[in-house]
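Could you help me review a protein record that somebody else here produced? This is what I was given.
***
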Amino acid sequence: MNLFLPLEQHTRSLLDDIPALIEKTFPLPARFRRTLPADVAELSRLLTSGRGERGLSYPGQPRFLSAYLRFYLPWNLYRLCRLLPGLDLTLAANDRITDLGCGPLTFAAALWISRPELRSLPLEFQCVDKSGPALDAGKRFFAALAGETWKIHTIKSDVHSVSLKPAALVCAVNVFNEMHGDISRWKTENIRRNAEKAAALLAGLSLQTGALQTGRTLPAAPAAILVAEPGFPRCGEFISMLRGDLITHGHQPVSPCPHNDICPFPGGGFGKQSSARQKSRWCHFAFETGDAPPALLRLSQAAGIPKERAVLSFIFTKAGDPVHEGVNLRIISDAFKLPRGRFGRYCCCRHGLALLAGEKETVEKTASGSLVHAHFIKGARDTKSGALMAVHPVD
């Protein structure tokens, strides 16, 4: 299944209304309205280069909570609404969903907006976050958006110390890069250790794991895990390691991976495909944001944080046996020019990193996140990256 398809009209309409819904639900005092762009810019700094300055109480500060609700909440909703329709979510009536580090119930809201076929299902959410103000805001926001569609339980707790019932879907969005400080400064061994801990935590909360441990009947559909992080190199490395650790817990990668073999990216194991040049690659996806809410794009511009593209790294797994058949390639890069007038995109496949080459028009139409079946050129590798060479069947 291809990823990050354009928004359906009903989803886009709901997202376009989100800024106004936030204004109605959380009226902004005049003193905060004047400084909103500056507050967004300062919050962005505290969440990136200024992590060491922000302290643990920053989510509860009124100006930062207001900036988060008006900037990060809509942008995170937008990213998830581009991602979720492309995932094979097999939820059933009375299924339980655990959302770790849920913030203002972003995942639940995005699921309601982007997967309308699930709205009539009686679902139960366990939403965990250490910020009380974020949870309170989330309850108000979700009630304004969806009413009492689903049963929502909010739990103020650290994710490592909370006691939860096993769930059919366990998700963690923008959680692990925040949990241990600035991930961009982590050494590889730190990433590996934290990935192991994260995999054990996620698998331990899974209904599949819980049923096997207690002898209860397994759920009708395989339990699933979704982890999404910002799309920069260290997060991509963390996701690659987490993928391998989840496999050891019996959770097989379904998306974006087109295979269940060793990940060809840093941290995932290179095997015979290893190359020093490949280590500059990481698993991430980028897509244009032209269909994001216009009011949100204007606020981004005013804050000096224009977002023409969204970038993320993620892994979606299901418990059980491997499900991939054949050799498919997942497009993971922008299109770029190759010698002799050709164009290419980097891909992931069961044989490692691949470079899919073709005519400019064909390659540009095959967007990042697409799943394609292509022909490998026997014995050929890209001299720059060491990637296997592949071509579109039409070429």
Observations:
- Residues 112 and 119 are 6 Å apart (CA to CA).
- DSSP finds eleven helices and 15 strands in the chain.
